[in-house]
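Good morning C.,

I know you're traveling, so I'll keep this short. The sequence:
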Amino acid sequence: MKLALTGLPHCLPYRLALLPCPAACLKMGPNSDPIDPALRARLLQEVRTPWRGLRRGLWLALAASGAVGLATMAMRAASGAEVASADLLIQVGALGLFGSLLWLDRNRAGS
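The C-alpha cells, ready to paste straight into the viewer:
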C-alpha cells in the first residue's frame, strides 16, 4: 500500500494514521461550492462565543440551585425556625452571581 503524504505539513499526522484529513487541509478547487451563508454565520457565531449553550445551561442550573436554597430558607424562617445569616448570605450571593452571569451571557441584538 502506497501512502500519499501530500498536503499541508500539519496534515501529516492524519495521513500517517490513515484518517481523513480535516477540511482545513483540503484545498478548494475552482469548481467547489462555497459554504452555505447561514452555516457560515452560525460557525462564526460559535467561534465568537464557544460553548455558549453549555455555559448558559450551567448558569441556569446554578441560579436555580440558589433560588431553591433561598426559597427553602424563606420557608424555614416563615415557620419560625432559626436561619443562619451566613447561609442566607451564601444563597443570596449565589442567586445574584449566577443570575447576573446568565443575564450577561444573553443574546445581544448588535452581535
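Safe travels,
E.
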